[in-house]
């Protein structure tokens, strides 16, 4: 059964649209939009432009002019929003990962116990990344090239995933500090996702749900019960995100 995730606050994940989305063209004329509306529209277009540019060229090779071209936004408008490429990357990363985490939280809350909630949150993560490959590449792979501040943001994000293990308790005799165990599980899941994204297999991420479910719950449920959890995964569910659209040629 397909699950459609509505964009939170009507804000799709960065990279789900093209920066030159015709619906966001700022039209000239006597009825000028308020300055804050123009700025917000340009910022959203720059988020999308940055994601597509970094995914295509890599962070190191992406230039501000490339991002502006992809977004249909002028360089002065870019620098009115961000101090430079690193600041734009950080803002886009924070914005996008906030959207993803909130979608995961919604899936977690919809379930009756932590194991189903954690599995639901993991499913959303895999489906959303698979649905927006450019964002997956930018946020999972290219974050490593974006500097120490970006890597600190990534580490903060991974620590935030502890919330999805609130009711989990390891089986004895596993005498490991709870946070260490959770961080190890999250780190292993993240490393597996990163490997797939870096290999260009982003759209196959949902296929990892059974094995990652097993890995995630085995320390708490034991191998036999974890195998049953993995076998119960519904591999037919798909999370849909806002589609990309054609680029017009105008620049504002």
TrEMBL record:
Biased composition (Basic and acidic residues): 17-26
Region (Disordered): 1-27
Residue ranges the UniProt entry marks as DNA-binding: 63-82
Keywords of the record: DNA-binding, Transcription, Transcription regulation
KW Transmembrane helix (keyword) present: no
Gene3D superfamilies, A to Z: Tetracycline Repressor, domain 2
PANTHER family: HTH-TYPE TRANSCRIPTIONAL REGULATOR BETI, HTH-TYPE TRANSCRIPTIONAL REGULATOR RUTR
Domain HTH tetR-type residues, every copy: 40-100
Native source species: Micromonospora zhanjiangensis
Protein name per Swiss-Prot or TrEMBL: TetR/AcrR family transcriptional regulator
Keyword RNA-binding among UniProt keywords: no
């Amino acid at each position: 059964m397909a699950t459609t995730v509505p964009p939170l606050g009507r804000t799709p994940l960065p990279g789900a649209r093209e920066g030159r989305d015709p619906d966001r063209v700022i039209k000239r004329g006597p009825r000028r939009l308020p300055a804050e509306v123009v700025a917000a529209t340009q910022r959203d277009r720059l988020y999308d432009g940055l994601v597509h540019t970094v995914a295509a060229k890599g962070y190191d090779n992406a230039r501000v002019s490339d991002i502006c071209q992809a977004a249909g936004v002028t360089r002065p408008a870019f620098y009115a929003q961000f101090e430079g490429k690193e600041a734009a990357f950080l803002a886009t990363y924070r914005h996008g990962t906030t959207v993803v985490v909130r979608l995961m939280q919604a899936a977690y809350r919809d379930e009756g116990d932590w194991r189903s909630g954690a599995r639901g949150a993991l499913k959303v993560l895999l489906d959303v990344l698979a649905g927006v490959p450019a964002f997956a590449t930018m946020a999972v792979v290219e974050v490593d090239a974006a500097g120490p501040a970006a890597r600190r943001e990534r580490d903060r994000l991974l620590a935030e995933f502890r919330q999805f293990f609130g009711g989990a308790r390891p089986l004895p005799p596993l005498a490991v500090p709870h946070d260490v165990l959770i961080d190890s599980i999250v780190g292993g899941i993240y490393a597996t996702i990163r490997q797939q994204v870096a290999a260009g297999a982003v759209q196959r991420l949902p296929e990892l749900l059974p094995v990652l479910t097993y890995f995630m719950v085995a320390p708490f449920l034991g191998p036999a019960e974890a195998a049953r959890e993995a076998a119960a995964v519904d591999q037919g569910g798909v999370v849909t995100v806002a589609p990309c659209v054609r680029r017009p040629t105008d620049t504002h």
